[in-house]
Amino acid sequence: MRRYSGEKAAWQHPQSLGQDYPAWLSGICLILIALFLPFSVASAQGVGEIVSVLGTAEVFRDRHWQALTMGATVAAGETVRIGSDSRAAIQLSNGAQVKLNANSQTEFKQIAPPTEGILDTATQVLQNLLRVLSGEVWVRSGGEPLEIETVYATATVRGTEFDLAVEPGDLARLTVLTGLIEFRNPQGSVLVAANEQATAKRGEAPRKIVLINPLDAVQWSLYYPDGVGAPGQPDPRRPNDSQSPRYWTQTAQRQLLQGQVAAARQAIDRALVLDPNDADAYSLRSTIALVQNRNAEALTDAQRAVAANPASSPAYLSLSLAQQAGFDLNSALASTRKATELDPDNSRALIQESSLLFGMGQLNEAIKVAEQARQRAPNDAMVNTIWGFLLLAQNRVSDAREAFQTAITQDSTLGLPHLGLGLALFRRNHTKAAVDEIRKATLLEPQVSLYNSYLGKAFYEIKDDRRAKKYLELAKQLDPRDPTPWLYDAIRLQSINHPAEALDNVQHSIDLNKNRTVYRSRLLLDEDLATREASQAGIYENLGFEQMAQVEATQSLSLDPTNYSAHRFLSDSYSGRPRYEIAQVSELLQAQLLQPININPIQPSLVATNLNILARTGVSKMAFNEYMSLFERDQTQLYASGAAGNNGTWGDEVVASGLNGSFSYSLGQFHYQTDGFRPNDDIQHDLYDLFFQAEVTPELNLQAEYRRRETTQGDLHLNFDGSFAPQDRNNTTQETTRVGLHYSPSPQTNMIVSLIYTDRNTDFDYFYRKNGFQLIARPNGTQAEAQWLYKENLFNTVTGFSLYRNKYNNSFPGTPHPDLNFPVDQTTVYGYANIQFSPSITGILGLSGDSYDQQNFSFNQLNPKLGLRWNVTDQLVLRAAAFEVVKRAFIVNQTIEPTQVAGFNQFFDDADGTSSKNYGVGLDIHLSKNLFGGLEFFRRDLELPFGIGGPFEIEKDQEDLYRAYLYWLLDRNWSVTTEYLYEGFKMLNGQYRRMSFPTRLETTSVPLNVRYFNPSGFFTGVGTTYVDQRASYDPEANHSIASGSAHFFLLDATVGYRLPKRWGIVALEARNLMNQQFQFQDYWFQTATNNTDPRFLPERTWLARIVLNF
């Protein structure tokens, strides 16, 4: 029961404290809302945990005051009071956060548990009650409604961060940092928004003002680290002398630790009056600016500190911290090393150096420096915190937890050890405790953007999207220059069917990262390995922006070819693109070799080539790694997908992947079968993949993989005249074993090794002019590759070699034809250099050498490679390349050699030993924030060997590809894509293939697609494709097939739904809805395997698909 009076409040303290409180002290009541579920609480139930105490804090319990320490709990109905020059931080059981300033008293009347469901806040019943009896409190709610009632006014809140103080003169002051509060009393009301402040006096209507810097009102609640040394150590020559600058800087440091920022500023000013060149004073000013996210001011003051006293170790430490805030890591490292040079016993400088070395990938050096810091300051909380992160990087999770807990005991006001402890708890899969620890980090240091980014990511991990969104948005506001929350929010938005907004976040993160794609957070102490495995390609694919994805991925690889995230990004973006299968599986192999242990699933369907499956598009093309965990967690995850369609089509894919300590694994199977659209067009695949990886040391990873493939198929070829072989059959069984090694002795150097052995057994049944014969092919081979990668700031190099030793054993049962057995050996060495001639121009210089030996021919060849990537402006990129390639003697279609030069693919499924000269130029442009386009021209001049065991010749072909694309985001729900694609093929000379195949083939296709994404999870898309094809045959070599042309329109559609809580997707996709019949020649005859995934089928097809994440 609550009662108000304009003159006097009727409320009394629930405990008899033996004091008469003035009217203005007895009226304030905070009501914090958490749930819509029914809740009742007993008076002794714990409602909050004491996270930090600086000074003295007491609780009124059992009718007397008792001391509170860190880790203690507060029960419902109890009152907490804070002593002078003291502070306390409390995490409430409903997730809300409270800080109590000096000389305050607050009763925790009633707190509800955290919300587990979704309910309109207007319908919720107020179930949380705090009574502020005196002093000042800072509160960050979890987004639930909140009501504050005082004698002077009532405040109704809808999820916010604010500060409430009761001041002398019967005045209540409310400052809102985020959210909206209605502040009212019988005399009137005001709406107080973010960056506004309201006051209310007894008997007067509330009034509000706009604040230029609302952060000034909550300075007391922020954490200010010790930047100049332990306080309380006066100048030994002038102890307690107020005319000594040291006296005032030490006073300022003590006041900062107590949250008395205004007083600290005054003390700093006094020190500068006494000595305008006092380095400690400028260092303290730099510290204040850093905490308040004013990084430019922090850097200026730190530079002044160094200029004032070049012999000051604390000054250089301040400069290092300010440079780190600007992500100038090399300068930060140099400054902190100068600090340790000036004072070898400066443990804070040593541990700063260690954290920078770790963030720059120099783990062993970081450990050495941290050990020195531990020897000098074993009881320093920051030293033990950084030591905990270093232990975590070595997978010593239990030891890391102990180090973090020690640091928390040593300094309960520091947020970083709570973040580290949260990461360690996530690693052991203690998700609730992990989230609680990261929340504590944001409670203790609420202005640190990265802590809020990690808290948003933590809520994403436990599928609490509302809170994930809240904290990521807060992180963006706290540090608008940090790309981390934009990256995390892009992943979140993609998972809830907002790909357009996700792309906007990705593009903004790239802008903040100097036009470079972002794959991890900017927290130097966390490698953010799980986030780096998350699929960004899915964002582009959902929208139909695949070309954009490839441009971003290839640019990332030109800057850092060791970036396994970029390799996976490029592999995913190649998936489903015609004739890019070798590049797709090769990029996946490179990503696997370079990756650390992780829970990423290995999908058997993505490792294999030549599956002859109609390519999926858009959302239904989604890979399992779109559902990746964003924290490293020891757990097992299960992914499953199923599909069913007409023509007897059905399939499934199931993958279980897991992480346990220093070991990870993935076990998967894939099945697909269809009867096809005509006789003998059937196909069936059964694929199995077992993958294991172990981290032997932080520098050394080993992995092993076993694959098995069983394929049965008929004649799947599409020919221009519609002909096919009704009796030809192909049965293949293949087993492949692979072992890999990744060794990284330093951040600049990486070595990867891949050894692959495969054994394939294929039975071909051929029928020609009613006469059939059987061919049994049993090729087996070994592929050994090694690569050395080196990188510096302005260049990187990739050097390596490949050895291919294959044996082909062919027999013709039932025929007089003798067995055909022969080896194929190839050795390749290569070197590539990506050189940044300027911040906007990257040149690619390369050279490879091939020694090829086959039954009918052998040769040695040098292949120059040149490429250019020029960022003409931030919106315009020019790419150009010229290179030569010799097609490898692949059996498994994978290599670790770079697959592209300036974004142009090197490896196509040509006949083994084919030599090609390639030329390309491309232009990619951001026409506006929501409009993207580009042009690309690519030519290939080929010399390919033809004929084994019979007539042999070198034939010459020419291929051209012209592409123009335009991508448009209409708004946050709609995307439109269109493309012009010309593919030209010409036989220049050669007498054998022209007897059966076109000598000239020109195909033009113009797709137009519109996609819609609804926030509810529903998505749909419709597309039309115009195709024009002209096929020319040599009338002298082939009299049975006439040259001709064909053109047709196809209509496709997709509809689907994203299941809530990232459970998966269901989709229905239909192709050729109008059931168009047409002539079309696909490109199977240009490939070594005589296979290519079908792009168009002359019959209506539909496929229902479901993807589930367990």
Oligomer: single chain
Would you tell me the overall average pLDDT?
86
- What proportion of the residues form beta strands (DSSP E)? 35-45%
Give the N-to-C terminal Cα separation: 48 Å
Tally of alpha and pi helices:
22
CATH topology of the largest domain: Maltoporin, Chain A
Radius of gyration: 34 Å
- CATH top level of the largest domain? Mainly Beta
General form: elongated
Under CATH, the homologous superfamily of the largest domain reads: TonB-dependent receptor, beta-barrel domain
Compute the number of strand runs: 44
Any chance you could write out the topology, listing elements then pairs?
Elements: E1 29-32, E2 46-54, E3 57-61, E4 64-67, E5 73-75, E6 78-82, E7 87-92, E8 97-100, E9 105-110, E10 129-134, E11 136-140, E12 145-149, E13 154-158, E14 161-167, E15 171-178, E16 180-185, E17 188-193, E18 196-201, E19 207-210, H1 245-257, H2 261-274, H3 279-291, H4 295-308, H5 313-325, H6 329-342, H7 347-359, H8 363-376, H9 381-393, H10 397-410, H11 416-427, H12 431-444, H13 449-461, H14 465-478, H15 484-495, H16 499-512, H17 529-533, H18 537-543, H19 546-559, H20 564-574, H21 581-594, H22 604-607, E20 635-645, E21 649-660, E22 663-674, E23 683-697, E24 700-713, E25 729-746, E26 749-768, E27 771-777, E28 780-791, E29 795-811, E30 820-838, E31 841-853, E32 858-871, E33 876-886, E34 900-901, E35 904-905, E36 915-928, E37 931-946, E38 953-969, E39 974-989, E40 1000-1013, E41 1018-1032, E42 1044-1059, E43 1064-1071, E44 1101-1109
Antiparallel strand pairs: 1-12, 2-5, 2-7, 3-4, 3-6, 6-9, 7-8, 8-11, 9-10, 11-14, 12-13, 13-16, 14-15, 15-18, 16-17, 18-19, 20-21, 20-44, 21-22, 22-23, 23-24, 24-25, 25-26, 26-27, 26-28, 27-29, 28-29, 29-30, 30-31, 31-32, 32-33, 33-36, 34-35, 36-37, 37-38, 38-39, 39-40, 40-41, 41-42, 42-43, ...
Helix pairs in contact: 1-2, 2-3, 3-4, 3-5, 4-5, 5-6, 5-7, 6-7, 7-8, 7-9, 8-9, 9-10, 9-11, 10-11, 11-12, 12-13, 13-14, 13-15, 14-15, 15-16, 16-18, 18-20, 19-20, 20-21
